[in-house]
């Protein structure tokens, strides 16, 4: 599949609709990450694009990183965890936050791991009633990356962020709305039209002023985003070589519950 097929683009009344499209879980491989980078560069350069609407195809937003693909690259020695994040998700998260246009995530189903970081980096979020937010990393013995360690506590509080990181339990759309993790919730059937209508409404507003507001929010709320992403990469390199990840990954591949032991 050509890289452009991993991420589908559609223009509609000043809105660039960006759809993750890698069945069946829309899990990110290197080509899909690069395709999303390219889509954001298109949005940045095209003056006709005033708002970005990011969503997933099918009934899932994204399961996050394709663990099998990255595992093969790591085992072969081609890439370290730190190098992987510096090459992929760190610049992607920064690009979303630095894009001087609103980015709206329409979370059409479950989202986990690095994809959750991407969703949290967006300016606004609308979720389908059946959407579920899973931090995900601890499920394979890793620590949060892709900005999750910063965005999640900022949005729902440190105690809740710690609980859902450590337990890996899903956050429902209803709970996400109550906690401010998402701005709005819609029925699954109405989500595409509702999200697009909201994006079009935003595109008709003072987008330049919105971009400046976004810069102000970044400075006041996320002034240490870049250093946090760098530190996450450092921490993930440690976690990735630890016994918890080895057991967690093996359990994931064998489709069984992990058994963590001291040591």
Strand content is 5-15%
CATH C-level class: Alpha Beta
Number of discrete helical segments: 13
Mean pLDDT: 94
CATH 4th-level superfamily: 2-enoyl-CoA Hydratase, Chain A, domain 1
Helical fraction = 40-55%
CATH 2nd-level architecture: Alpha-Beta Complex
The general outline is: globular
Low-pLDDT runs of 5+ residues are none
Explain what you see.
The structure is a single chain. With 263 residues, the chain is of the alpha/beta class. It has a single domain, classed as Alpha-Beta Complex (2-enoyl-CoA Hydratase, Chain A, domain 1). It is 52% helix and 14% strand. The chain contains 13 helices and nine strands. The chain has helices at residues 3-6, 30-45, 67-75, 81-87, 89-98, 114-121, 148-156, 158-167, 173-179, 191-203, 207-221, 225-240, 243-254, and strands spanning 7-12, 15-20, 51-56, 103-107, 111-112, 124-128, 132-134, 171-172, 184-186. The strands form two sheets. A six-stranded mixed beta sheet has the order 1-2-3-4-6-9, sandwiched between helices. Strands 5-7-8 form a three-stranded mixed beta sheet. Strand 1 and strand 2 (15-20) form a beta hairpin. Helix 2 (30-45) packs parallel to helix 5. It is globular.
Task: List descriptors.
single chain; about 260 residues; alpha/beta; 2-enoyl-CoA Hydratase, Chain A, domain 1; 13 helices
Helices and strands in order, then pairings?
Elements: H1 3-6, E1 7-12, E2 15-20, H2 30-45, E3 51-56, H3 67-75, H4 81-87, H5 89-98, E4 103-107, E5 111-112, H6 114-121, E6 124-128, E7 132-134, H7 148-156, H8 158-167, E8 171-172, H9 173-179, E9 184-186, H10 191-203, H11 207-221, H12 225-240, H13 243-254
Parallel strand pairs: 2-3, 3-4, 4-6, 5-7, 6-9
Antiparallel strand pairs: 1-2, 7-8
Helix pairs in contact: 2-5, 4-12, 5-6, 7-8
């Amino acid at each position: 599949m050509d890289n452009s097929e991993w991420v589908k683009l559609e223009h509609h009344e000043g809105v660039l609709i960006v759809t993750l499209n890698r069945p069946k879980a829309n899990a990110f491989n290197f080509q899909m990450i690069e395709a999303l980078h390219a889509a954001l560069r298109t949005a940045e350069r095209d003056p006709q694009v005033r708002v970005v609407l990011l969503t997933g195809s099918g009934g899932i937003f994204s399961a996050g990183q394709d663990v099998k693909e990255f595992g093969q690259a790591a085992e072969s020695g081609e890439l370290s965890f730190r190098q992987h994040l510096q090459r992929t998700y760190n610049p992607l998260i920064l690009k979303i936050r630095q894009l001087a246009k609103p980015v709206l995530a329409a979370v059409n189903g479950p989202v986990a791991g690095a994809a959750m970081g991407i969703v949290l980096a967006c300016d606004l979020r609308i979720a389908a009633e059946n959407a579920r937010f899973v931090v995900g990393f601890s499920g394979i013995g890793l620590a949060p990356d892709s900005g999750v360690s910063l965005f999640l506590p900022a949005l729902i509080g440190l105690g809740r962020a710690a609980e859902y990181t450590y337990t890996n339990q899903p956050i429902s759309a209803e709970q996400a709305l109550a906690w401010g993790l998402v701005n709005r919730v819609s029925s699954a059937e109405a989500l595409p039209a509702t999200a697009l209508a909201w994006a079009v409404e935003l595109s008709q507003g003072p987008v330049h002023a919105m971009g400046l507001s976004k810069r102000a929010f970044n400075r006041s709320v996320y002034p240490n985003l870049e250093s946090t992403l760098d530190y996450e990469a450092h921490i993930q390199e440690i976690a990735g070589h630890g016994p918890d990840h080895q057991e967690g990954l093996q359990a994931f591949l064998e489709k069984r519950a992990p058994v963590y032991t001291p040591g």
